[in-house]
Specification:
The protein has 13 helices and no strands. The protein is mainly alpha-helical. The chain is elongated.
Length: 237
């Protein structure tokens, strides 16, 4: 079975069967998003139930020792059910990645991008229902390292634009990696327009990203960001 083979071995159909419903999370229609959120709540409940059973069996089989535990059918079944439940939920379902490292051809990539786009477009819903800052950070870094084919590049360019127009959220600074990976005249034009907008947040964020795009050797550290926000960019030259 595909689920027992693991997410790296699965094809696009297996991913769609597990997580196809999640595209409703980024729908413009509130009713579609609501239905997807209901589905997510049920999926996360199943993860919690399966995790509780797995941990219960872990405690019960502790006296057996590690080797015997992994030969105990009840423990193995609980472990398998927990993993299967995780693969049908978020953020658990997008953890891990392709063994070969080629994210671009990995059938899980659309769901990685989906999870990031959900956080970008509907941050309040994401925070309420699937907040995972560490997952956000690691996925941003992964997509920034991926080969930038046109469809991926277009999606990531949109996300950078969305992020610079909003108030700063945890790990948003990681999108500088993405901006550097997809740097183009199109992206810079969008950032220029954000710099000229009425939003102080957009002016600050977009200006910072543009400034770093012109300085590829300057690290995107917390100190650099805080100095920029404080208006001391000249001190970093």
């Amino acid at each position: 079975m595909a689920e027992e083979a693991g997410t790296d071995a699965d094809d696009a159909c297996a991913w769609a069967e597990r997580l196809g419903w999640a595209f409703g999370l980024i729908a413009e229609d509130p009713a579609a998003r609501g239905a997807a959120l209901v589905h997510l709540a049920e999926a996360r409940r199943k993860v919690a139930d399966a995790r509780a059973r797995y941990y219960e069996l872990w405690r019960l089989t502790r006296p057996l020792g590690a080797d015997e535990r992994y030969r105990e059918p009840a423990f193995l079944q609980a472990r398998r059910r927990y993993q299967q439940a995780q693969r049908r939920s978020l953020p658990d379902g997008v953890w891990g990645g392709p063994v070969g490292g080629d994210l671009t051809t990995w059938p899980g990539l659309p769901y990685v991008l989906l999870f990031l786009e959900w956080e970008a477009r509907y941050p309040r819903e994401w925070t309420r229902h699937a907040k995972a800052w560490g997952t956000k950070e690691s996925l941003i870094r992964e997509v920034a390292r991926a080969r930038q084919e046109e469809a991926i590049k277009a999606k990531l360019t949109d996300m950078v634009e969305i992020v610079v127009h909003r108030a700063y959220r945890c790990k948003d600074r990681e999108y500088v990696r993405v901006a550097r990976a997809v740097d183009s005249a199109d992206l810079r034009g969008r950032l220029d327009r954000a710099v000229d907008s009425d939003s102080s947040w957009a002016r600050c964020h977009a200006g910072y990203v543009l400034w770093l795009l012109d300085r590829p050797d300057l690290p995107n550290t917390r100190h650099v960001w805080q100095t920029w926000v404080a208006g001391g960019a000249a001190a970093l030259m």
